[in-house]
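tool_call: predict_structure(chain=1)
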Amino acid sequence: MQPTAPQALSTLSGFETYAIPRSEALARLRLRLGGRRREIRQSFESGALDGMQAARALSDMIDELLVGLAAYAGLPDDPQQMTFSLCATGGYGVGLLAPFSDVDLLFLTEDTPSEALLEKIEYVLYTLWDLGLQVGHATRSIAQCLEAASDATICTTLLDLRPIYGSRALAGELSQALHRELQGERLEKFVEARLVERGRRHHKYGDTPYLVEPNIKEGGGGLRDLQALNWIGNALLGRDSGTSPGPDQPNRLQGLAASCLQLGHLTARETYRAHKIWRFFWTVRLHLHYTAGRAEERLTFDMQPIIGARMGYANHGRQRGVERFMRHYYLMARSVMQLTSVLQPTMLLQLQNHLHATTPRYLPGPEGFHLLNGRLTAMTSELFSNTPLNLFRLLAVASKYQLPLHPNAVQHLIRQERHIAELRGNPEAAELFLDLLCAPARIPPAQLPSASADNKTGESPHADVAAPDRKGAEPLAARPLVGTLHRHEENFWLPLLNETGLLARFLPDWSRVMGQTQIDGYHIYTVDEHIIEGVRVLRQLEIGRMADEIPVAYTLARNLQGRRALYVAALIHDIGKGRGRDHSQLGSELAVTICAQLHLTPEETDTVSWLILHHLLLSHTAFSRDIDDPQTILDLADIIQSPERLRLLLLLTIADVRAVGPRGWNTWKATLLHRLYTRLADVLEGGQQTREDDQRVAEARAQVARALRPATSETEIGQFLKLGGPGYWLGFDAHTHVRHAHLTLAQLQHPNESGIRVDLHPLPSRGITELTVLCPDRPGVFSLIAKALAICGTSISDARIYTLSNGMALDTFWIQDQHGEAFEERAHLERLEAKIIQLLSAQNPEGGQAGPYPPLSDEDALEIAPDQTAALRRLGNVQVPSRVLIDNEASDKFTVVEVNGRDRPHLLFELTATLKREGVHISSAHVTTYGLRAVDVFYLHDAHGRKITAPAQIARLRESLLRVLTGPAA
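tool_result:
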């Protein structure tokens, strides 16, 4: 029952039945509205109401307010006259309202409204705005509504039409007219528009529900997906004799189209699950609104522990409360995707049958399966419950014959997934599973078989099936479930295996990482989705999609000896996460059991276990170690030993890093990995030794000499060739040496007053800008340059520091902007150069001023981009442990110091300033950021060029660096 005016007035005491001045109405309503809001919030936060009940109470509160306000305004409320009706539409029309959601209203009139009626409508709207409500509104007649409903979005809002005040018959007439209009071709277009919109929405919000900061309303597996099922169901099947539902009707309570429940499209278990999902999401959404104090729909890192605690998720064993909460969220989102995959095909088949007066045409298909509209399926679910192996065979046949799955085949997989547990350890099932996992990507992707009966393309021996619809297009009911379980490329079965539940049933350890969140600001997916993305990257490597970034990977991927072992390693490389131990070590141990279940050979099992144990080795070394240090290469070669293992490990490393997210990979990282691979392959394949030798240095010098002739004199070439030691000549390529030569010779021939020269060389294809600074060497040069770069909002990816034989420092930095791209714009480059020269010129060795630039002022603040500020705020409560490791064994010549801690914009400057104060010199620096965690590695020596070995000095150095990591700035 909707509240009538007298009922509402009795509920909100103080309302009158006659029109009053708007100022008086505003004062009365504001008092009552504030009190009622507080009551609902207190009831919700105390647990007396769940999220859906509170949302309904908020909707009822607005209903009552509108009834009273309409009465104040003197709007017509004569049940005998169909002249006016005030209706709720959209989400508010369903009768559920979040605390800060828009209130969507339709002022429905029989004919064009009079000036007097429009004035009363304005009275209502201005009062609502003054009350602080966000109101979406329209004033239309029935004819105007039907005309506007040609827009699918407006049509959708009208499907949830609910009368609040005035003529209920007028609202009922609009609902009936709308459903009469939604027939035939127009109904089909409406449904297709909703499916297209859902696909676009999913793409906008990340194409997956498993983002670590999901949007609970618009993202995949969120509330909007459930609402989309309502809209399609209500459009297809109508709503209770064409009238709008009251507040107690099923779809308002349960969040599902009433027709879907009435017609038995869901099993009792699925219906129960759907109700549970609906209540869970509304509870999360209301907590999110109340906590944020605004219409916030994104579960950001700073919100997750708060919402989890409010919902009662406490720490349990090794798992924190927030992790348990988010895992539950992702499992619920997966259930929404499954629910969509169960309901949508049934509804669309019903639409097709209604439009064309046909019944589904099942035709014999390959190997005991059937075809429906040209897509592979089974006629009954008993085929899977009686013979669970058919769950894998269905996908294998689809892959073999290049047949797409029919959506109702996905229904069967979801509803029968529990039977897959019977296949654990089954050799035939293991073979089928491995074939599905390792199925190669197609080049180019194969065209889908035509649905036409006269198909002669030869794409598939079983594509010659059902007739097309009247337009020759594929029927809606046969199309893939856009934005649901079919969101990855053709012939890639791993997402489907995961989301249907088959993978967790078949490999029990997989269930431990399903929905497991990674709150580190680095990974953007849950663990299971990260793994799946990694396997997808491997497939892309094999077909050359990344050949322009790291060509050697494409070459290696085409000639693999241990392809099956690589794919299994990629599938389970993070299987040990979240269990309180080093996940690489634990995963390596678990791999032995999993490989036995999959019937891999002992050799393959050993390879998989080894790859998982060392899957971080190459990335850690390439991004945070000096790969030109011979000792580094020899140590890695001792661990890897085999050229084939090196090839497999490189491919697994690329897949792992690429799968982190868009910012996890760039061409600079590709360059580092390629350089490291080349050096290791050189040793493992018996080529040149990595230790500096005269031959390689001589070759490097000869290349530079040839490049400089004839524009440069032999005397000048000889001057440059004498400046660098062996480490310098082996640390750069010939092109960089030539740039250094021009910079150095320019200073020798035409010395400037400051003695400082800066060269900035953008490398956009590698996503990096190479910065070279030539200046008189003195302690603290690196720190000053780091400070200048921090001021300009620059991220340092790597650095090399060399002192030439003439006493000049030649420091090279590889830098990026705050979006992980190269600096290219002239204005940015000029500012960087000016700031570096300003800081270096402002201090001479005695501490005084020198050069034409004034010293840096206190007002010259460090730049922090808006997205960095937002990230710092969101991630403020996430704990990042601080650690300083000092190693004298990792390098022959230097002490290696690794600093781990929470990243912040000027951390590198503070660390290098500390090293300067401690009297140590930096030979090279390697800067890597993993979301919140900075890993900065420095190769150090003392004033005499020796390692730092005194225990007291090492202890003091560690303590000083830890103070930087944990001090007030942190």
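agent: The chain has 39 helices and 15 strands. Proceeding to next step.
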